[in-house]
Amino acid sequence: MDSLITAAARALAAGDPLYALKHVALRDDAPALALRGIAMAQLGELDRAKMLLKNAARAFGSREAVARARCIVAEAEIALVSRDLTWPTRALDAARVTLETHGDSLNAAHARNLEVRRLLLIGRLDEAERMLAGLDPAPLPPASRAARALAVAGIAIRRLRTRAARAALAEAGQAAIEAKIPALIAEVESASLVFSAPAARLVARGDERPLLLDEVEALLASGTLVVDACRNVVRDEKTIVPLATRPVLFALLRALAEAWPADVSRSTLLARAFRARHADESHRARLRVEIGRLRAELRTLADVKATKRGFALVPRALEVVVLAPPVEEQHASVLAFLADGESWSSSALAIALCLSPRTVQRALEQLAAAGKVQSYGRGRARRWMTPPVPDFPTTLLLPGPLPSS
After folding, report:
1. For residue 232, what is the domain's CATH number?
2. Which of 134, 221, 264, 390 counts the most CB atoms within 10 A of its CB?
Protein backbone atom coordinates (compact mmCIF):
# COMPACT_ATOMS: atom_id res chain seq x y z
CA MET A 1 0.00 0.00 0.00
CA ASP A 2 1.56 3.32 -1.07
CA SER A 3 1.89 6.40 1.09
CA LEU A 4 -1.05 8.27 -0.49
CA ILE A 5 -3.43 5.37 0.17
CA THR A 6 -2.13 5.11 3.75
CA ALA A 7 -2.61 8.84 4.37
CA ALA A 8 -6.13 8.77 2.91
CA ALA A 9 -7.09 5.77 5.05
CA ARG A 10 -5.85 7.48 8.20
CA ALA A 11 -7.80 10.63 7.33
CA LEU A 12 -11.01 8.63 6.86
CA ALA A 13 -10.47 6.84 10.17
CA ALA A 14 -10.22 10.27 11.82
CA GLY A 15 -13.41 11.48 10.10
CA ASP A 16 -11.73 13.86 7.63
CA PRO A 17 -13.03 12.87 4.16
CA LEU A 18 -11.91 16.06 2.41
CA TYR A 19 -8.27 15.49 3.37
CA ALA A 20 -8.57 11.89 2.20
CA LEU A 21 -9.94 12.97 -1.19
CA LYS A 22 -6.94 15.24 -1.73
CA HIS A 23 -4.81 12.10 -1.93
CA VAL A 24 -7.00 9.79 -4.03
CA ALA A 25 -9.50 11.94 -5.95
CA LEU A 26 -7.72 11.50 -9.31
CA ARG A 27 -6.88 7.79 -8.99
CA ASP A 28 -8.92 4.89 -10.37
CA ASP A 29 -7.10 1.87 -8.96
CA ALA A 30 -9.09 -0.44 -6.68
CA PRO A 31 -7.80 0.83 -3.29
CA ALA A 32 -8.34 4.44 -4.33
CA LEU A 33 -11.87 3.70 -5.56
CA ALA A 34 -12.71 2.10 -2.22
CA LEU A 35 -11.37 5.05 -0.22
CA ARG A 36 -13.12 7.55 -2.51
CA GLY A 37 -16.36 5.64 -1.92
CA ILE A 38 -15.96 5.81 1.84
CA ALA A 39 -15.09 9.51 1.65
CA MET A 40 -18.17 10.27 -0.44
CA ALA A 41 -20.30 8.31 2.05
CA GLN A 42 -18.94 10.42 4.93
CA LEU A 43 -19.82 13.53 2.93
CA GLY A 44 -23.40 12.29 2.45
CA GLU A 45 -23.14 11.49 -1.28
CA LEU A 46 -24.51 7.99 -0.81
CA ASP A 47 -25.44 7.14 -4.40
CA ARG A 48 -21.98 8.12 -5.64
CA ALA A 49 -20.41 6.21 -2.75
CA LYS A 50 -22.32 3.02 -3.59
CA MET A 51 -21.20 3.16 -7.21
CA LEU A 52 -17.54 3.70 -6.26
CA LEU A 53 -17.57 0.82 -3.76
CA LYS A 54 -19.20 -1.54 -6.26
CA ASN A 55 -16.51 -0.64 -8.80
CA ALA A 56 -13.81 -1.16 -6.17
CA ALA A 57 -15.17 -4.59 -5.20
CA ARG A 58 -15.28 -5.58 -8.87
CA ALA A 59 -11.72 -4.33 -9.38
CA PHE A 60 -10.39 -6.27 -6.39
CA GLY A 61 -12.03 -9.48 -7.63
CA SER A 62 -11.92 -12.89 -5.98
CA ARG A 63 -8.14 -12.94 -5.60
CA GLU A 64 -8.20 -10.12 -3.05
CA ALA A 65 -10.96 -11.54 -0.89
CA VAL A 66 -10.26 -9.40 2.19
CA ALA A 67 -10.28 -6.10 0.30
CA ARG A 68 -13.43 -7.12 -1.55
CA ALA A 69 -15.11 -8.08 1.76
CA ARG A 70 -14.24 -4.67 3.21
CA CYS A 71 -15.97 -3.00 0.26
CA ILE A 72 -19.06 -5.12 0.86
CA VAL A 73 -19.11 -4.11 4.52
CA ALA A 74 -18.88 -0.45 3.49
CA GLU A 75 -21.78 -0.98 1.04
CA ALA A 76 -23.81 -2.52 3.85
CA GLU A 77 -23.19 0.48 6.08
CA ILE A 78 -24.37 2.84 3.35
CA ALA A 79 -27.49 0.69 2.87
CA LEU A 80 -28.20 0.87 6.60
CA VAL A 81 -27.70 4.64 6.76
CA SER A 82 -29.96 5.13 3.72
CA ARG A 83 -32.51 2.75 5.29
CA ASP A 84 -32.28 0.25 2.43
CA LEU A 85 -33.48 -2.78 4.39
CA THR A 86 -33.79 -4.85 1.21
CA TRP A 87 -30.00 -4.93 0.83
CA PRO A 88 -28.88 -8.63 0.86
CA THR A 89 -27.80 -9.42 4.41
CA ARG A 90 -26.25 -12.73 3.30
CA ALA A 91 -23.56 -10.74 1.51
CA LEU A 92 -22.67 -8.93 4.74
CA ASP A 93 -22.63 -12.20 6.69
CA ALA A 94 -20.35 -13.81 4.09
CA ALA A 95 -18.05 -10.77 4.16
CA ARG A 96 -17.84 -10.94 7.96
CA VAL A 97 -16.91 -14.63 7.83
CA THR A 98 -14.22 -13.88 5.22
CA LEU A 99 -12.73 -11.13 7.39
CA GLU A 100 -12.74 -13.36 10.48
CA THR A 101 -11.13 -16.21 8.54
CA HIS A 102 -8.30 -13.95 7.32
CA GLY A 103 -7.67 -12.42 10.73
CA ASP A 104 -9.14 -8.95 10.09
CA SER A 105 -10.90 -8.85 13.45
CA LEU A 106 -11.52 -5.09 13.51
CA ASN A 107 -13.45 -4.95 10.23
CA ALA A 108 -15.22 -8.20 11.15
CA ALA A 109 -16.35 -6.53 14.38
CA HIS A 110 -17.60 -3.56 12.35
CA ALA A 111 -19.60 -5.91 10.14
CA ARG A 112 -21.12 -7.52 13.23
CA ASN A 113 -22.05 -4.08 14.56
CA LEU A 114 -23.86 -3.33 11.30
CA GLU A 115 -25.81 -6.58 11.55
CA VAL A 116 -26.79 -5.71 15.13
CA ARG A 117 -27.94 -2.22 14.12
CA ARG A 118 -30.13 -3.64 11.35
CA LEU A 119 -31.71 -6.17 13.71
CA LEU A 120 -32.35 -3.40 16.22
CA LEU A 121 -33.98 -1.27 13.55
CA ILE A 122 -36.53 -3.96 12.70
CA GLY A 123 -37.20 -4.91 16.33
CA ARG A 124 -35.42 -8.29 16.52
CA LEU A 125 -33.86 -7.55 19.88
CA ASP A 126 -33.12 -11.12 20.98
CA GLU A 127 -31.06 -11.80 17.86
CA ALA A 128 -29.26 -8.49 18.25
CA GLU A 129 -28.34 -9.33 21.86
CA ARG A 130 -27.02 -12.75 20.90
CA MET A 131 -24.85 -11.23 18.18
CA LEU A 132 -23.53 -8.54 20.52
CA ALA A 133 -22.61 -11.19 23.08
CA GLY A 134 -20.02 -12.54 20.64
CA LEU A 135 -18.36 -9.15 20.19
CA ASP A 136 -15.59 -8.40 22.71
CA PRO A 137 -15.17 -4.60 22.94
CA ALA A 138 -11.71 -4.70 24.57
CA PRO A 139 -9.54 -4.90 21.42
CA LEU A 140 -11.71 -2.55 19.37
CA PRO A 141 -10.65 1.00 18.47
CA PRO A 142 -12.62 3.86 20.11
CA ALA A 143 -14.97 4.41 17.16
CA SER A 144 -15.99 0.74 17.08
CA ARG A 145 -16.42 0.67 20.86
CA ALA A 146 -18.71 3.68 20.60
CA ALA A 147 -20.78 2.00 17.88
CA ARG A 148 -21.11 -1.17 19.97
CA ALA A 149 -22.11 0.80 23.07
CA LEU A 150 -24.73 2.69 21.05
CA ALA A 151 -26.21 -0.63 19.96
CA VAL A 152 -26.25 -1.85 23.58
CA ALA A 153 -27.98 1.39 24.61
CA GLY A 154 -30.53 1.04 21.82
CA ILE A 155 -31.50 -2.43 22.97
CA ALA A 156 -31.71 -1.32 26.61
CA ILE A 157 -33.88 1.68 25.70
CA ARG A 158 -36.28 -0.48 23.69
CA ARG A 159 -36.52 -2.90 26.64
CA LEU A 160 -37.06 0.05 29.06
CA ARG A 161 -33.88 -0.66 31.04
CA THR A 162 -32.91 2.95 31.57
CA ARG A 163 -30.05 2.39 33.99
CA ALA A 164 -28.29 0.04 31.57
CA ALA A 165 -29.03 2.43 28.71
CA ARG A 166 -27.48 5.40 30.54
CA ALA A 167 -24.37 3.37 31.36
CA ALA A 168 -24.00 2.28 27.74
CA LEU A 169 -24.46 5.85 26.47
CA ALA A 170 -21.84 7.10 28.93
CA GLU A 171 -19.45 4.45 27.61
CA ALA A 172 -20.29 5.44 24.03
CA GLY A 173 -19.70 9.11 24.81
CA GLN A 174 -16.28 8.43 26.31
CA ALA A 175 -15.27 6.26 23.35
CA ALA A 176 -16.51 8.90 20.89
CA ILE A 177 -14.40 11.57 22.62
CA GLU A 178 -11.37 9.27 22.42
CA ALA A 179 -12.07 8.72 18.72
CA LYS A 180 -12.18 12.53 18.18
CA ILE A 181 -14.88 12.18 15.51
CA PRO A 182 -17.40 15.06 15.77
CA ALA A 183 -20.17 13.19 13.92
CA LEU A 184 -19.90 10.27 16.35
CA ILE A 185 -19.96 12.58 19.37
CA ALA A 186 -23.08 14.25 17.95
CA GLU A 187 -24.74 10.85 17.42
CA VAL A 188 -24.20 9.92 21.06
CA GLU A 189 -25.56 13.28 22.22
CA SER A 190 -28.60 12.86 20.00
CA ALA A 191 -29.26 9.36 21.37
CA SER A 192 -29.10 10.73 24.92
CA LEU A 193 -31.97 13.16 24.26
CA VAL A 194 -34.47 10.29 24.59
CA PHE A 195 -34.20 10.60 28.38
CA SER A 196 -35.28 14.25 28.45
CA ALA A 197 -38.19 14.01 25.98
CA PRO A 198 -41.69 12.89 27.01
CA ALA A 199 -42.13 9.19 26.24
CA ALA A 200 -45.82 8.84 27.10
CA ARG A 201 -48.84 10.39 28.81
CA LEU A 202 -50.22 9.04 32.06
CA VAL A 203 -54.03 9.13 32.15
CA ALA A 204 -55.60 8.31 35.53
CA ARG A 205 -58.75 9.39 37.39
CA GLY A 206 -59.56 12.08 34.83
CA ASP A 207 -56.13 13.72 34.90
CA GLU A 208 -53.14 13.33 32.61
CA ARG A 209 -49.48 14.30 32.63
CA PRO A 210 -46.37 13.53 30.54
CA LEU A 211 -43.92 10.82 31.60
CA LEU A 212 -40.21 10.50 30.92
CA LEU A 213 -38.71 7.13 30.02
CA ASP A 214 -37.44 6.56 33.58
CA GLU A 215 -40.94 7.19 34.91
CA VAL A 216 -42.45 4.74 32.43
CA GLU A 217 -40.03 2.06 33.62
CA ALA A 218 -40.89 2.75 37.26
CA LEU A 219 -44.61 2.66 36.50
CA LEU A 220 -44.40 -0.75 34.81
CA ALA A 221 -42.56 -2.15 37.84
CA SER A 222 -44.93 -0.65 40.41
CA GLY A 223 -47.67 -3.29 40.40
CA THR A 224 -50.20 -0.87 38.92
CA LEU A 225 -52.58 -2.21 36.27
CA VAL A 226 -51.38 -0.43 33.13
CA VAL A 227 -53.42 -0.23 29.95
CA ASP A 228 -50.61 0.48 27.50
CA ALA A 229 -51.96 2.30 24.44
CA CYS A 230 -48.45 2.57 22.97
CA ARG A 231 -48.20 -1.21 22.45
CA ASN A 232 -51.88 -2.16 22.88
CA VAL A 233 -51.37 -4.43 25.87
CA VAL A 234 -52.61 -4.56 29.45
CA ARG A 235 -50.16 -5.53 32.16
CA ASP A 236 -49.18 -5.50 35.76
CA GLU A 237 -45.78 -6.20 37.29
CA LYS A 238 -45.86 -9.91 36.39
CA THR A 239 -48.38 -10.48 33.61
CA ILE A 240 -48.73 -9.09 30.08
CA VAL A 241 -51.90 -9.61 28.03
CA PRO A 242 -51.44 -8.53 24.38
CA LEU A 243 -54.49 -7.06 22.65
CA ALA A 244 -52.84 -5.63 19.51
CA THR A 245 -54.86 -8.01 17.32
CA ARG A 246 -58.10 -7.31 19.25
CA PRO A 247 -58.78 -3.60 18.61
CA VAL A 248 -62.41 -3.72 19.77
CA LEU A 249 -61.44 -5.30 23.09
CA PHE A 250 -58.65 -2.80 23.60
CA ALA A 251 -60.95 0.14 22.83
CA LEU A 252 -63.45 -1.11 25.42
CA LEU A 253 -60.69 -1.68 27.98
CA ARG A 254 -59.18 1.75 27.47
CA ALA A 255 -62.54 3.44 27.92
CA LEU A 256 -63.13 1.50 31.14
CA ALA A 257 -59.61 2.25 32.43
CA GLU A 258 -59.85 5.98 31.69
CA ALA A 259 -63.10 6.21 33.65
CA TRP A 260 -61.98 3.97 36.57
CA PRO A 261 -63.11 3.81 39.35
CA ALA A 262 -66.36 5.07 37.84
CA ASP A 263 -68.38 3.09 35.32
CA VAL A 264 -68.92 3.83 31.62
CA SER A 265 -72.31 4.03 29.96
CA ARG A 266 -73.26 1.56 27.25
CA SER A 267 -73.69 4.34 24.71
CA THR A 268 -70.15 5.61 25.35
CA LEU A 269 -68.70 2.10 25.00
CA LEU A 270 -70.60 1.55 21.76
CA ALA A 271 -69.29 4.82 20.38
CA ARG A 272 -65.68 4.08 21.40
CA ALA A 273 -65.57 0.46 20.25
CA PHE A 274 -67.99 0.33 17.30
CA ARG A 275 -68.36 4.02 16.39
CA ALA A 276 -72.09 3.54 16.64
CA ARG A 277 -73.97 6.84 16.77
CA HIS A 278 -77.41 5.28 17.01
CA ALA A 279 -77.25 2.00 18.89
CA ASP A 280 -79.86 -0.65 18.29
CA GLU A 281 -80.41 -4.07 19.85
CA SER A 282 -77.83 -5.71 17.58
CA HIS A 283 -75.16 -3.27 18.84
CA ARG A 284 -76.08 -3.93 22.45
CA ALA A 285 -75.95 -7.69 21.85
CA ARG A 286 -72.53 -7.36 20.27
CA LEU A 287 -71.37 -5.25 23.21
CA ARG A 288 -72.37 -8.01 25.63
CA VAL A 289 -70.44 -10.55 23.55
CA GLU A 290 -67.31 -8.39 23.42
CA ILE A 291 -67.48 -7.65 27.15
CA GLY A 292 -67.58 -11.40 27.76
CA ARG A 293 -64.50 -11.85 25.57
CA LEU A 294 -62.76 -9.04 27.44
CA ARG A 295 -63.50 -10.71 30.78
CA ALA A 296 -61.90 -13.91 29.48
CA GLU A 297 -58.74 -12.05 28.38
CA LEU A 298 -58.45 -10.18 31.69
CA ARG A 299 -59.27 -13.07 34.00
CA THR A 300 -55.89 -12.93 35.80
CA LEU A 301 -55.76 -9.13 36.02
CA ALA A 302 -59.26 -7.74 36.43
CA ASP A 303 -62.98 -8.30 36.04
CA VAL A 304 -65.64 -6.27 34.23
CA LYS A 305 -68.85 -5.80 36.22
CA ALA A 306 -72.21 -4.70 34.83
CA THR A 307 -73.79 -1.59 36.39
CA LYS A 308 -77.17 0.06 35.93
CA ARG A 309 -75.94 2.34 33.16
CA GLY A 310 -73.06 0.30 31.71
CA PHE A 311 -69.90 -1.47 32.87
CA ALA A 312 -67.04 -0.85 35.30
CA LEU A 313 -63.52 -2.25 35.57
CA VAL A 314 -62.72 -4.11 38.81
CA PRO A 315 -58.94 -4.65 38.95
CA ARG A 316 -56.93 -6.99 41.17
CA ALA A 317 -54.40 -4.13 41.57
CA LEU A 318 -54.93 -1.06 43.73
CA GLU A 319 -54.57 1.42 40.89
CA VAL A 320 -55.44 1.58 37.17
CA VAL A 321 -53.77 3.93 34.68
CA VAL A 322 -53.64 4.36 30.92
CA LEU A 323 -50.25 4.83 29.25
CA ALA A 324 -50.84 6.79 26.03
CA PRO A 325 -48.49 8.33 23.44
CA PRO A 326 -47.82 12.06 23.95
CA VAL A 327 -49.22 12.68 20.48
CA GLU A 328 -52.03 10.48 19.19
CA GLU A 329 -52.87 10.60 15.52
CA GLN A 330 -53.34 8.35 12.53
CA HIS A 331 -50.24 6.54 11.23
CA ALA A 332 -48.29 7.33 14.41
CA SER A 333 -46.02 4.29 13.94
CA VAL A 334 -44.92 5.55 10.52
CA LEU A 335 -44.19 8.99 11.96
CA ALA A 336 -42.24 7.35 14.78
CA PHE A 337 -39.74 5.94 12.29
CA LEU A 338 -39.54 9.10 10.20
CA ALA A 339 -38.95 11.19 13.33
CA ASP A 340 -35.28 10.11 13.33
CA GLY A 341 -34.68 12.57 10.48
CA GLU A 342 -33.38 9.87 8.10
CA SER A 343 -34.82 9.21 4.66
CA TRP A 344 -36.78 5.95 4.30
CA SER A 345 -38.14 4.06 1.33
CA SER A 346 -41.69 2.75 1.62
CA SER A 347 -40.38 -0.82 1.23
CA ALA A 348 -38.00 -0.35 4.18
CA LEU A 349 -40.82 1.02 6.33
CA ALA A 350 -42.97 -1.97 5.36
CA ILE A 351 -40.22 -4.37 6.50
CA ALA A 352 -39.64 -2.54 9.77
CA LEU A 353 -43.36 -2.25 10.59
CA CYS A 354 -44.31 -5.74 9.34
CA LEU A 355 -46.99 -4.22 7.11
CA SER A 356 -47.76 -4.60 3.43
CA PRO A 357 -45.98 -2.14 1.10
CA ARG A 358 -49.33 -0.84 -0.17
CA THR A 359 -50.54 -0.10 3.38
CA VAL A 360 -47.40 1.91 4.05
CA GLN A 361 -47.69 3.74 0.72
CA ARG A 362 -51.26 4.78 1.53
CA ALA A 363 -50.18 6.02 4.96
CA LEU A 364 -47.33 8.04 3.46
CA GLU A 365 -49.61 9.56 0.84
CA GLN A 366 -52.08 10.65 3.53
CA LEU A 367 -49.30 12.09 5.69
CA ALA A 368 -47.86 13.91 2.67
CA ALA A 369 -51.28 15.38 1.85
CA ALA A 370 -51.42 16.68 5.44
CA GLY A 371 -47.95 18.21 5.06
CA LYS A 372 -46.37 16.00 7.72
CA VAL A 373 -43.88 14.17 5.48
CA GLN A 374 -42.16 14.92 2.22
CA SER A 375 -40.56 12.82 -0.48
CA TYR A 376 -37.82 13.17 -3.06
CA GLY A 377 -36.79 11.00 -5.98
CA ARG A 378 -38.96 8.84 -8.19
CA GLY A 379 -39.80 5.18 -8.56
CA ARG A 380 -37.60 2.82 -6.55
CA ALA A 381 -35.32 5.74 -5.59
CA ARG A 382 -38.14 7.60 -3.85
CA ARG A 383 -37.45 8.39 -0.20
CA TRP A 384 -39.61 9.84 2.56
CA MET A 385 -38.51 11.96 5.47
CA THR A 386 -39.58 14.61 7.94
CA PRO A 387 -37.79 16.78 10.49
CA PRO A 388 -38.00 15.30 14.02
CA VAL A 389 -41.39 16.08 15.56
CA PRO A 390 -41.03 17.96 18.88
CA ASP A 391 -42.11 15.88 21.88
CA PHE A 392 -42.99 12.92 19.66
CA PRO A 393 -42.03 9.52 21.11
CA THR A 394 -40.23 6.92 19.08
CA THR A 395 -39.16 4.36 21.67
CA LEU A 396 -42.57 3.07 22.74
CA LEU A 397 -43.98 2.97 19.22
CA LEU A 398 -41.15 1.02 17.57
CA PRO A 399 -41.57 -2.73 16.97
CA GLY A 400 -39.97 -5.33 19.17
CA PRO A 401 -40.63 -7.65 22.09
CA LEU A 402 -42.54 -6.15 24.98
CA PRO A 403 -40.26 -5.09 27.87
CA SER A 404 -40.51 -7.69 30.61
CA SER A 405 -40.71 -6.79 34.25
Report:
1. 1.10.10.10
2. 264
